[in-house]
Specification:
With 127 residues, the protein is of the alpha+beta class. The chain has one domain: PAS domain (Beta-Lactamase). Helices cover 32% and strands 25% of the residues. Strands 2-1-5-4-3 form a 5-stranded antiparallel beta sheet. β1 and β2 form a beta hairpin. The termini are far apart.
Length: 127
């Protein structure tokens, strides 16, 4: 779907970034994730919409990927997740027209907290 050189460049640039970062195809398939995203369990090969609780949606309600593709420019938006402000970015790749980089500044802590709460709930109530 995307050349190995693009995947390698993604890892070189975003691998150590301290927030979860995803390389996503316009079909919303996650092509690659950085170290932080991998550590909190974001899988490659799945649809990014599967990461959110918006059941039945084919795209997140706050997704700006289509706007980023339409304009060819990075789109930034601010939202709140569990009382924390997250600034999301959708950056289309000029060299690979059907692919974009997506990340949110402030999302790492929120996602780690949510994952920890879910793990704690499973330990407390195993049923």
């Amino acid at each position: 779907m995307v050349e190995q050189g693009v995947l390698d460049s993604f890892q070189t640039m975003w691998g150590p970034f301290p927030e979860p970062v995803m390389l996503i195809h316009k079909t919303r398939t996650i092509l690659a994730v950085n170290d932080c995203a991998r550590a909190i369990g974001i899988p490659t090969g799945s649809k990014c919409v599967a990461l959110n609780a918006e059941v039945g949606d084919v795209q997140c309600r706050s997704c700006k990927a289509d706007l980023a593709f339409r304009t060819g420019e990075t789109v930034c938006a601010e939202e709140s997740l569990d009382g924390k402000t997250i600034i999301g970015y959708w950056m289309p790749l000029k060299e690979v027209p059907d692919v974009y980089v997506h990340f949110g500044i402030g999302s790492g802590a929120a996602m780690r907290a949510a994952k920890g709460a879910a793990s704690s709930a499973k330990l407390v109530n195993p049923s």
